[in-house]
Amino acid sequence: MNEKNFSYLKDTLKYLGFGEGLHASLEEKLKERAKEFQLGYSATFGDRRIDASLSFRKSDTSDIYFFNKWNGTVGEYEAARSQNFYINKGHGITLKEGFNLLEGRAVHKELTDKEGQTYKAWLQLDSKEKDATGNYKVNQYHEKYGFDLQQKLEALPIKQLADPELKEGLIRSLQKGNMQTVTFEKNRQSDQLLVAANPRFKSIAVFDQSGKQIPQHSLDKRYDLEVKKPELTLVGKAAEKEAPQKKQELGEVRKMDGATSKKEEKAKTQSGSADGLEKKRTGKQKGMHP
Fold first, then answer.
1. 207 torsion bin: left (phi>0), alpha (psi -120 to 50), beta (else)
2. Confidence of residue 166 (pLDDT cuts 50, 70, 90)
3. What does pTM read for this prediction?
4. Which end of the chain is more exposed for a tag (fewer CB within 10 A), N or C?
């Protein structure tokens, strides 16, 4: 068994949230020198459980083993949801992040593209679409998408935001995909609620203590929140339907402007003629003798 490889794999497991409980099983499997093997792991978060299967594979040219991926499953029977999370050089989705993704929440991660460039994005599973391997499609919301977590939080009357340390901890927790308990305080109202990042809709999802999401209009009314209504922009058929009407209205405005200009020009001409005639009359009067 390669001791350095064993030490590296133990550190990777710990970093990804699988703790130290698998070390003995891992060592045993490495000593067996099988081409590949799996280790099982389960964890509970609140009243929800995730079951994981960790996959290891031996190098074709050495005695080094790689932790390639882990599969997580949340729920049972028809309600069960599973996903493969791939590991790249010891980095990837942690156990808790995988749990949060399978629960439908978003996770903020630093990723690497094909050219080796790093970038940050929110990840969220699309529960309605799977690929050929049975994995849910992973939607990415990049920084240019326009979701600013801190800005959205500051628009809410969250007590913890007044403390820089608590604020930083809240942001970090939401970026990991957690549902976080906070205190809403305004207009003598004080409530313990749960919040989660919702990058898809560029908002913060708010829940009561039972986990039921609270509609935005209810929050607006209870906490007197200022809601900025976006300018309505029609698209598709609605825009096509409105375009001829706008064009006609614009044409009518131009016609009216043209008619007005002609009237003004005519009035100026008449005024000029009258002024000239008046000047002639005045001139004649000046030349007359009593």
1. beta
2. very high
3. 0.75
4. C
